[in-house]
Amino acid sequence: MSHSPGEEGGLSQAAPKVNTQEQLDDPNQAAATGTTPEDQVRVSQVVDEASPSSTSSFEMLDMEPVPAPYQEVQPHWFFCRRAEDNTSWLPFSREDSDKLENACNTVREKEEEVVVAVDGERYDIHVKERKRYAVYWEQAPTEVRRCTWFYKGDKDTRFMPYPEDFSNSLEEAYMIAVTLDEWKRKLEFPNGETIILHNPKLIMQYQPIGLQDEWVSSPSEQTRPRTVKRGVDSISVEIPDGEPEKVDHLVFMVHGIGPACDLRFRSIIQCVNDFRSASLSLLASHYKRAQQDGKIGRVEFLPVNWHSALHGDATGVDEDIQRITLPSISRLRHFTNDTLLDLFFYNSPTYCQTIVDTVASEINRLHTLFKQRHPEFNGDVSVVGHSLGSLILFDMLTNQRNGSETRKGVPTNEPFRLSCDTLEQTLTRLGLQQYLDTLQTENLDLESLALCQDGDLKDLGIPLGPRKKILNYMRRKWLPEDCKTGAVHLAPGLQVPPQVTSDHDGNQSSELTMQQSQFHRAQSVTSAVDYEYFDMGIGQTNGGIAKGQVSIDYPQLAFHPQTFFAFGSPIGMFLTVRGLKHIDPNYTFPTCKSFYNIYHPYDPVAYRIEPMIVSEVDLEPMLIPHHKGRKRMHLELKDSLTRMSMDLKNNVLGSLRTAWQSFARLPVAALPPVDEGETTKETNLQDTQGVCEEAESSVSAEQTEQPEIKVGMLNGGRRIDYVLQEKPIESFNEYLFAIQSHLCYWESEDTALLLLKEIYDKLGVAFEQPQQ
Known about the structure:
Blueprint: H1 22-25, H2 27-32, H3 37-40, E1 42-45, H4 56-62, E2 76-82, E3 87-91, H5 94-107, E4 115-118, E5 123-126, E6 131-134, E7 142-147, E8 149-152, E9 160-161, H6 164-180, E10 185-188, E11 194-199, E12 202-206, H7 219-222, E13 226-230, E14 247-254, H8 268-286, H9 288-292, E15 298-304, H10 307-310, H11 317-324, H12 330-346, H13 352-373, E16 380-386, H14 388-398, H15 420-429, H16 436-441, H17 446-450, H18 454-459, H19 464-478, H20 481-484, E17 494-495, E18 500-502, E19 508-510, E20 563-567, H21 571-577, E21 582-583, E22 594-599, E23 622-623, H22 633-664, H23 676-704, E24 721-723, H24 738-742, H25 749-761
């Protein structure tokens, strides 16, 4: 059995449908038959024999002068990327290709495998095996190839590399032709494939007519050859620039609902790759001088995937949902089950813990692995959340504990003693000393006991009454003092202002009376999950801000994030639905001091945050500058029309003021005597004139100065809401581009530049706007 060498590994979907030459591709098979690929290729001299599709142009090219003496071809390494409908080969950067070539020379001298890290150390290449493995995420290994010869058919869009054994045969024939200056050499392969070396610049591959595609329309198409090129420099391929080795900042990116992150149904891995590529291009253009001076390296972006863990076999939720799914409109129902249900899962007492645990453990795993592969890294870490991913991070960051602060509810001057004596005293005070041995058997102290839920104590065999006594005591002991006294100062700054009334004595009393329950409980019919809200950040007591959120154990991150970026985030809506009307301006995340809410103006899922902090002022969101340093044309036109209308309004007010002033300056002698009743009219006239002047001055003030307004400490006193500039075509029909607007952030250069500016501003690196 023999195949065309061009089709090995799915080299070209558009190439004629032939088989691959296994004897050339598989050295073991060649050895079994007692021949080598070179032996199987028959080389003959073509004198007057016409090729299947030779033309006079071949003869003209044959008359070109002979090139310089033979020089060995320079190889370049490629990797295979397979999709559902096509297969493509992409080149490594020159730096990575040189590393692989050096390692390849080493492999020949060693028996063990040699591993080379490429693509910013996100992939490992097993050189001997010729495989590429992902480091940070799950991905099937892909083939890599040391490429020297390439081909392209008429229907192909790019050159594809030949297998290495086949390329070696071509290179040997080419070397003989150059050395002996003998051209028009024909290389015939056992499967009927023929390659003719007409001259150094014209090398063609011909396929036997019997193996041609049955569906070609004419005999001329049957004999159409492939163009063959030698060396990567002779083909049109864009070789990517290498990434700087130094990493200045690490960013984890958490996706939203569903497995796909854009309209092309790509995974979070592919979308983050695009975002990383955009950031590298912006660093080269907007931080060019800093890069040339060696002041900066790059920002690493790593994807955090939680969807597969939720919908995997471990939870069995997909199988359970499928059993109750109706058979009609199956594709729509499958889409709903795979995407929209994630919103309900996050609000489910059963699966919310799974989602949060997965996100936190995956971030911590990636952080540990990154530190292992980059031991010299000493930069900061930030997090990005898109859609539901931003809400997950918001809840998680709200419930982080600063390592320097003591446990809430424990006074700083009274350190909490974790000892058996303290546990014994507590149980004695509650009259439950008979359960001391039970708790000590499980190595429980007061801190671990505070983390127990009703089901945990039930599993230890403790009856219902004692369980309630223990849980009630622990929650009261560990609640902040404000919560014990009925104050509504929450989490520690997210706050719902109570309705305050005054009695006849002037004493203020809250409508949230002490008779109102301290905890809101909602029992699940099918789950024993505890819904009591205590010490859970945004899920708080006293009619707090998260009446619909279950009380779960939020895991802690292994680092303190520098900045939290939210893309297309529904955080504001969820907080409002949970019952939060106002965020305390003094509130900050316990371990993260910066927060940006970035959204597209037509994003149907995005909501603002600033109105929940500063409700008395109507603040417009901050407009994110275009990465080319200007506003989009249609927005500049809109602003010009707005200024024209304001100028027209000012002219009208100015004319009105002049008329009033002229009327007021009439000669006193010409005026009739003023009686008491007319004094009021004159006063009204002066008041009207004053109103006109105030209106004009206020309009002028709005135009000239925008007073800086602090919007709380959630972003260190700086603005939080940032809006992208819509494209001109999007402004024609905002409904048509609504879904796309929610998925646009991964490819948005404006968004990537905002992240880079925030990161490098804190490193003291100046931003440069390139000249257009």
